[in-house]
C-alpha cells in the first residue's frame, strides 16, 4: 500500500499518528507538495477524485481519501492496539467523541489557520474575519473537551483513541497562528502534555 502524504497539514498527520501508534511500518509514504499544487495534477486527481491529501492506495489499486476512512481501513487490517472501539458500545462512544472533536474543534481551527497564516494564501482566498470567527468557535468548543477531560484521562475511552489523535493534530496545527488553549482549561493542558510526551507525536512532526 501507499500513503500519499504531506507534512504539517493536520489531516495527513492524523493518519501518520494512527499508524505510529499501531506500529504500522509496511506502508510506503509518497510525499505530495500542496504548495506546489501536486495534489491538483491530473495523475493525482485520476486516483483521488478530489484534490485531497492524504490518500491511501491499496494493493489492488483502489484509492481512498478522507483521513478517518483511511484509519478505519487500517484498523481493520491492524486491529491491535485498538484505537476505534472494542465492542459496539465503545465503538459508538468513540465515534461520538471523534465526530464532536472534528466538527467543533478540528474544523474551526483548521479553517482559522487557512485564513490567517500568510504562507497559506497560495491555497486559500483568505478572509481574516473568517479566521478570527473560527478561532473563537474552536476555543469555545474546547470548553466541552475540558469538561470531558476533567472526568477522563483521554477524550473517548480509558486509553488513547482516534478521538485524541483528531483533536491533537488540529490543536497542534493551530500553533502556526500562535493558538493556545486558554490557561484556565487545565484538563486540556494536562492532556496536551500527555500527548506531546508520546513517541508517535515526536516522530509524526
Structural class: alpha+beta
Largest sheet: 4 strands, mixed
Rg calculated over all Cα atoms: 17 Å
Number of beta strands = 4
Helix percentage range: 40-55%
- Give the mean pLDDT: 96
Distance between the termini: 22 Å
- What is the molecular shape? globular
Beta-strand percentage range: 5-15%
Strand order of the largest sheet: 2-1-3-4
Instruction: Enumerate how many helices there are, as a single number.
Output: 8
Order of helices and strands: EHEHEEHHHHHH
Itemize the secondary structure elements and their pairings:
Elements (H helix, E strand, L loop, with lengths): L1 E4 L4 H13 L5 E4 L10 H7 L6 E3 L5 E3 L1 H11 L10 H29 L11 H22 L12 H12 L12 H11 L2 H5 L2
Parallel strand pairs: 1-2
Antiparallel strand pairs: 1-3, 3-4
Helix pairs in contact: 1-3, 1-6, 4-5, 4-6, 5-7
Structure description:
With 205 residues, this protein is of the alpha+beta class. The protein is built from 8 helices and 4 strands; from the N terminus they run βαβαββαααααα. Strands 2-1-3-4 form a 4-stranded mixed sheet, with helices on one face. It is globular and about 50 Å long. The protein starts with a strand and ends with a helix.
Summarize the structure.
This protein is of the alpha+beta class.
Question: What features would you highlight for this structure?
Answer:
single chain, about 200 residues, alpha+beta, four-stranded mixed beta sheet, 8 helices, 4 strands, about 55% helix, globular
Amino acid at each position: 500500500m501507499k500513503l500519499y502524504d504531506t507534512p504539517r497539514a493536520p489531516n495527513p498527520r492524523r493518519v501518520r499518528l494512527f499508524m505510529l501508534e499501531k506500529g504500522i511500518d509496511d506502508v510506503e509514504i509518497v510525499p505530495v507538495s500542496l504548495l506546489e499544487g501536486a495534489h491538483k495534477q491530473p495523475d493525482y486527481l485520476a486516483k483521488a477524485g478530489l484534490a485531497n491529501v492524504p490518500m491511501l492506495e491499496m494493493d489492488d489499486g483502489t484509492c481512498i481519501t478522507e483521513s478517518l476512512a483511511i484509519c478505519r481501513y487500517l484498523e481493520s487490517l491492524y486491529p491491535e492496539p485498538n484505537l476505534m472501539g472494542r465492542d459496539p458500545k465503545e465503538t459508538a462512544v468513540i465515534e461520538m467523541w471523534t465526530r464532536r472533536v472534528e466538527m467543533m474543534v478540528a474544523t474551526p481551527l483548521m479553517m482559522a489557520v487557512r485564513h490567517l497564516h500568510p504562507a497559506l494564501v497560495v491555497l486559500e482566498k483568505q478572509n481574516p474575519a473568517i479566521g478570527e470567527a473560527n478561532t473563537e468557535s474552536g476555543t469555545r468548543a474546547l470548553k466541552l473537551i475540558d469538561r470531558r477531560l476533567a472526568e477522563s484521562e483521554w477524550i473517548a475511552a480509558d486509553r488513547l483513541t482516534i478521538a485524541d489523535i483528531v483533536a491533537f493534530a488540529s490543536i497542534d496545527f493551530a500553533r502556526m497562528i500562535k493558538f493556545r488553549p486558554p490557561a484556565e482549561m487545565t484538563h486540556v493542558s494536562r492532556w496536551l502534555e500527555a500527548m506531546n510526551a508520546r513517541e508517535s507525536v515526536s516522530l509524526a512532526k
